[in-house]
Amino acid sequence: MQRTSWLGPALLSLALVAAGTAPIAAAAPNSAAPQVNWGSCAPAVQNADDVPGAQCTMLAVPVDYDNPSSGTMAIAVIRIPAAGTRIGSLFVNPGGPGSSAVDTAVGMGAALAGSPINEAFDLVAFDPRGVGYSTPALRCRTDAEFDAWRREPMVDYSPAGVAQIEALTQRYVDQCVARMGKDVLGHVGTREAARDMDEVRKILGDDQINYLGFSYGTRIGTEYLNKFGNRVRRMVLDGAIDPSADPVAQTIDQMAGFQSAFEVYAADCAKSTDCPLGTDPAQSVARYRALIDPLATRPARTSDPRGLSYADAVTGTFNALYTPQYWKFLTSGLLGLARGSDPGDLLMLADQYQGRDRNGHYTNDQDAFNAVRCVDATWSRDPAVWAAADQRIRQVSPFSSYGQFTGYAARDICSFWPVPATSTPAPAKPAAPGQVMVVSTTRDPATPYQAGVNLARQLGASLVTFEGAQHTVVFNGYECIDVATLDFLIDAVAPPPDLRCP
């Protein structure tokens, strides 16, 4: 069935939607055939009034599926009923890990009203354990502690400097243990999310589900396929995670991806005589470092009394590189640094990325991000591994690298994690023919293109390539991508082999 693009404004940065914290209505404990009470999503869920008819519930799931007496967690679930002839349920997840899928479903439900997706599918989402509206919320830091963390530049890679950085890291990990407990931290990974998703399928009464996963949401989708492949009708994975990749190698590849996106931004910026990085893209890295390196010892003044720290300038830059729609804010912030005026747009970008609102309150996105990724792989504790990684990152991503290579580097938070990994890197199992479509963007900064190629090969899935420099693309208003996605999800028609979309 031939389709044309029906989408209006782009669905901007689904992975950056702020997670809520208020509880929804309670539900009965889980069983082989879970029984729950569906109710109104408002007022607990932000902007729920934008999707009239949406229903919400809380689903109790065991902390440890292998030990039912371990207690329960509560999973927040939303369902937005189909407006027309129903094909089934379409689960959505924005990734992170740590972003609220419930909030994403609200945003998508409003944006897709009147669309073929809205006509054919119940839009369904659940917040993974500890995320968004699910309880207990994964929260390791107070607001004040998070503000203090962001003031630390963490760029001194001398032996003494590395020791200080790792002491801060260990303090953070200790806070996670004290506030969440090892039982919770040990059961919040993608292994559990896939089983939880099947429990949600049961309460919907569906024999099969459809799934649209963005970014780290592709990891959940892949895990679900591995465990419950016969319960999937169609699955679209956009901005893919390669489940076979070593986490250190994955980090290096991601930094190379951000370097590529930075170069695209710098080339676009150089078209203007007002570009803070100058009009010669070859000098953009040096000019960028000259603007932000001084912040490591002296934060810049902003209208916000916190000022702009080195860490926030870097975080704000990374946030802007997720989508060209944010480039204007990056340019404005860098111009503020270059002119000695207010670089507040960089602080705004950092606040958005870190989940801080205007009242100084944080979502728990970043704490959940750490808790999930740290149990989803085994992370090296060997300092030499991280020193070698730092050396390699400096080669592939010079824009993000402070100072010179010292032979020392601070280890990742996950190197200090207090519970063992519950998953290990392994290739995805082949899916059924025509069951999965993978979308990968050539200059995606966060999930590099090759990861999507690898995942499609492992699954035996259709691969759709988008030529661009942004993170995820489905239902962002690009006709070629959207038509292929609609044909696949609604009519079960696979895209042409090796489809490339401009």
UniProtKB/TrEMBL annotation:
Annotated InterPro entries: AB_hydrolase_1, AB_hydrolase_fold, Serine_prot/Carboxylest_S33
Top-level taxon of origin: Bacteria
Alphabetical UniProt keywords: Hydrolase, Signal
Matching Pfam families: Abhydrolase_1
Keyword Lipoprotein: no
Keyword Nucleotidyltransferase: no
Record family assignment: Belongs to the peptidase S33 family.
Protein name: Hydrolase
Species the sequence originates in: Mycolicibacterium fallax (Mycobacterium fallax)
